[in-house]
Amino acid sequence: MIRVLIADDQPLVRRGLALILAPDPAFEVVGEAEDGARAVALAHELRPDVVVMDIRMPVLDGVRATEELARTLPESRVLALSTFDMDEYVVAALRAGAYGFLPKDISP
User: Fold this and answer.
1) Among residues 86, 100, 51, 87, which one has the least CA distance to residue 72?
2) Crossing angle (nearest 10°) for helices 62-72 and 87-96
3) Domains of the chain by residue range
Protein backbone atom coordinates (compact mmCIF):
# COMPACT_ATOMS: atom_id res chain seq x y z
CA MET A 1 0.00 0.00 0.00
CA ILE A 2 1.25 3.48 -0.91
CA ARG A 3 0.85 5.94 1.96
CA VAL A 4 0.02 9.46 0.72
CA LEU A 5 0.13 12.86 2.41
CA ILE A 6 -1.77 15.64 0.59
CA ALA A 7 -0.58 19.23 1.06
CA ASP A 8 -2.65 22.05 -0.45
CA ASP A 9 -3.99 25.29 0.99
CA GLN A 10 -7.41 24.71 -0.60
CA PRO A 11 -9.58 22.28 1.42
CA LEU A 12 -11.61 21.36 -1.66
CA VAL A 13 -8.48 20.27 -3.54
CA ARG A 14 -7.27 18.20 -0.58
CA ARG A 15 -10.66 16.51 -0.19
CA GLY A 16 -10.99 15.96 -3.95
CA LEU A 17 -7.61 14.26 -4.22
CA ALA A 18 -8.41 12.10 -1.20
CA LEU A 19 -11.72 11.07 -2.78
CA ILE A 20 -10.00 10.19 -6.07
CA LEU A 21 -7.49 7.96 -4.25
CA ALA A 22 -9.94 6.41 -1.75
CA PRO A 23 -11.47 3.70 -3.98
CA ASP A 24 -8.07 2.31 -4.95
CA PRO A 25 -6.81 -0.15 -2.32
CA ALA A 26 -3.23 0.53 -3.44
CA PHE A 27 -3.40 3.98 -1.79
CA GLU A 28 -3.98 5.16 1.76
CA VAL A 29 -4.27 8.90 2.47
CA VAL A 30 -2.57 9.19 5.85
CA GLY A 31 -2.85 12.95 6.30
CA GLU A 32 -3.65 16.38 4.92
CA ALA A 33 -1.79 19.66 5.39
CA GLU A 34 -2.90 23.21 4.64
CA ASP A 35 0.58 24.74 4.29
CA GLY A 36 4.16 23.73 3.66
CA ALA A 37 5.27 23.93 7.28
CA ARG A 38 2.47 21.59 8.36
CA ALA A 39 3.31 19.27 5.44
CA VAL A 40 6.92 18.98 6.59
CA ALA A 41 5.86 18.35 10.20
CA LEU A 42 3.27 15.74 9.21
CA ALA A 43 5.66 14.03 6.83
CA HIS A 44 8.18 13.57 9.64
CA GLU A 45 5.44 12.25 11.91
CA LEU A 46 3.59 10.00 9.44
CA ARG A 47 6.44 8.93 7.11
CA PRO A 48 4.35 8.76 3.91
CA ASP A 49 5.67 7.14 0.76
CA VAL A 50 4.42 10.07 -1.34
CA VAL A 51 3.70 13.71 -0.55
CA VAL A 52 1.45 15.46 -3.08
CA MET A 53 2.67 19.04 -2.58
CA ASP A 54 1.05 22.21 -3.91
CA ILE A 55 3.73 24.65 -4.99
CA ARG A 56 2.02 27.85 -3.81
CA MET A 57 0.94 27.70 -0.16
CA PRO A 58 1.11 30.03 2.82
CA VAL A 59 3.61 29.88 5.71
CA LEU A 60 6.15 27.78 3.76
CA ASP A 61 5.69 27.41 0.01
CA GLY A 62 5.74 23.99 -1.61
CA VAL A 63 9.13 24.46 -3.27
CA ARG A 64 10.83 25.23 0.05
CA ALA A 65 8.90 22.44 1.78
CA THR A 66 10.03 20.04 -0.97
CA GLU A 67 13.65 21.13 -0.48
CA GLU A 68 13.31 20.46 3.25
CA LEU A 69 11.80 17.01 2.73
CA ALA A 70 14.37 16.05 0.09
CA ARG A 71 17.09 16.94 2.58
CA THR A 72 15.63 15.47 5.77
CA LEU A 73 13.23 12.73 4.63
CA PRO A 74 14.46 11.52 1.22
CA GLU A 75 12.49 8.26 1.45
CA SER A 76 9.25 10.26 1.04
CA ARG A 77 8.85 11.14 -2.64
CA VAL A 78 7.30 14.51 -3.46
CA LEU A 79 4.93 14.98 -6.38
CA ALA A 80 4.52 18.71 -7.05
CA LEU A 81 1.01 19.97 -7.73
CA SER A 82 -0.01 23.37 -9.08
CA THR A 83 -2.41 25.36 -11.19
CA PHE A 84 0.71 26.93 -12.64
CA ASP A 85 2.15 24.67 -15.34
CA MET A 86 4.68 27.24 -16.53
CA ASP A 87 8.21 25.97 -17.00
CA GLU A 88 9.67 28.06 -14.15
CA TYR A 89 7.41 26.40 -11.57
CA VAL A 90 8.03 22.92 -12.93
CA VAL A 91 11.79 23.47 -12.98
CA ALA A 92 11.81 24.98 -9.46
CA ALA A 93 9.85 22.03 -8.06
CA LEU A 94 12.06 19.46 -9.75
CA ARG A 95 15.25 21.22 -8.70
CA ALA A 96 13.94 21.27 -5.14
CA GLY A 97 13.72 17.49 -5.20
CA ALA A 98 10.25 16.68 -6.52
CA TYR A 99 10.05 13.42 -8.45
CA GLY A 100 7.31 14.68 -10.74
CA PHE A 101 4.87 17.47 -11.49
CA LEU A 102 1.09 17.23 -11.79
CA PRO A 103 -0.95 20.20 -13.09
CA LYS A 104 -4.25 20.67 -11.24
CA ASP A 105 -6.17 20.98 -14.49
CA ILE A 106 -5.38 17.41 -15.59
CA SER A 107 -8.29 14.97 -15.96
CA PRO A 108 -8.66 12.31 -13.23
Assistant:
1) 51
2) 20
3) 2-103
* Predicted confidence pLDDT, tens digits, the chain (108 residues): 999 999 999 999 999 999 999 999 999 999 999 999 999 999 999 999 999 999 988 999 999 999 999 999 999 999 998 876 666 877 888 999 999 988 777 776
Alpha helices in the chain (DSSP H): 11-21, 36-46, 62-72, 87-96
2-103 belongs to CATH 3.40.50.2300: yes
Count of beta carbons in the 10 Å neighbourhood of residue 78: 32
Contacts of 41 (CB under 8 A, 6+ apart): 33
